[in-house]
Amino acid sequence: xxxxxxxxxxxxxxxxxxxxxxxxxxxxxxxxxxxxxxxxxxxxxxxxxxxxxxxxxxxxxxxxxxxxxxxxxxxxxxxxxxxxxxxxxxxxxxxxxxxxxxxxxxxxxxxxxxxxxxxxxxxxxxxxxxxxxxxxxxxxxxxxxxxxxxxxxxxxxxxxxxxxxxxxxxxxxxxxxxxxxxxxxxxxxxxxxxxxxxxxxxxxxxxxxxxxxxxxxxxxxxxxxxxxxxxxxxxxxxxxxxxxxxxxxxxxxxxxxxxxx
Length: 261
Prior knowledge:
The chain is α/β, with parallel strands linked by helices. The protein has helices spanning 23-34, 46-56, 70-84, 108-136, 157-177, 195-204, 212-220, 230-241, and strands at 14-18, 38-43, 60-64, 87-92, 139-144, 182-189, 252-255. Helix content is 46%, strand content 15%. α1 (23-34) runs parallel beside α2 and α4 (108-136) runs parallel beside α5 (157-177).
């Protein structure tokens, strides 16, 4: 039987993925690279970036960058344009979770750190990449929100607020860029098997340092009854970046096993 290959419409397209050293970011790098994109992966974790590139199975460049710094994000956009060509895909994935505490006890420096990475990082990615996409009249952006950006979550108010803000940025950018044929969407993952959810599980039930009690609490909130895999989120992101979703703009797709429905 003659074999056939399936095109995902990303062949040769330049893509930037932030927070690419582990978890969902690493899975997105691999998914886009397998779909034919030329990927620039960035993160503050250089060792993790090297592992992401080594396991991606496609064309991947890496660079260290702190997405909360305007100069770093500008440098990433410039590097991608010079080395890979006009940027056709941007995945704003970088994010931090912070501690678990009530609003009255929440450390101000942690609140500011979460906003700097989660919100300013997405804003700067849009600021430095979106104008070029609009000028070329084409491109796709996916921002990483969370189910915590769709509903309030006690104990992680700063993280929840930051992810709500990403939804607002996504919808505003979609209306600005849509007339030029540029699409901006978001995904809202539920509990995904990553370092971040392991940290949250231990904080949810600090009396059990193994994290088992916390995992049981978190999975009980999901009708499917398990954590998702980073690859399950990455496949949705790849679809949103591809011609398979050309009429999807300003949407927030929950990838949460039915937690918010």
